[in-house]
Design a protein that fits this description.
Structural class: mainly alpha
Number of helices: 6
Strand order of the largest sheet: 1-2
């Protein structure tokens, strides 16, 4: 799972809309914009930290003379050391962070449901929006199937084609 900067506002908006329309969370109408900003800040911080972890892993590969195919393993190790969720752990990590944000936000008047219900609602919104990641990955892999995965040429071409696809689909590469 990968969170793109271009999806932060749509995801946050849908989270606030679902949470308030179902009565799971109560915020004064004039505060819904602030709740939206609270959730956006969680998602933006996730993107920033993930980028920092990837850069650190790349730096370790470069300095250590390691093979590029070890990037995923290094990213996972660094993320685990920081108690940060990436890959399969990202959905759980993000939902925990958003729930914590909601409970600590001074813009949320009341939360009327249990944590597990909040988690389900938030996961549904994330799944709906982040399916684009799986679709993009599948399309990119189809386009570069002639290259051997794990090689530096595969990684370079994957990033290039992914960047082009994101630009075509209106997703921001950096945010």
């Amino acid at each position: 799972m990968r969170l793109y900067a271009g999806k932060v506002t749509p995801i946050s908006t849908d989270m606030v809309n679902v949470l308030t329309s179902t009565g799971a969370v109560e915020a004064e109408p004039e505060m819904e914009g602030e709740v939206l900003l609270d959730i956006e800040s969680v998602l933006k911080e996730y993107i920033r930290t993930e980028r920092e972890i990837v850069n650190h892993a790349r730096e370790l590969i470069s300095k250590g003379g390691l093979e590029f195919r070890q990037l995923h393993k290094l990213k996972s190790k660094i993320a685990d050391e920081r108690s940060f969720g990436i890959g399969d752990k990202a959905m759980d990590y993000l939902t925990r962070q958003v729930i914590e944000c909601l409970f600590h936000s001074r813009h949320v008047a009341e939360i009327f449901v249990e944590d597990h219900e909040l988690r389900k609602v938030l996961r549904d919104v994330l799944r709906q929006h982040l399916k684009v990641d799986d679709d993009l990955d599948e399309e990119v892999r189809r386009r570069i199937q002639n290259l051997q995965e794990g090689t530096s040429s595969w990684e370079i071409e994957y990033n290039k084609v992914m960047s082009d696809m994101k630009r075509l689909k209106g997703l921001e590469v950096d945010g």
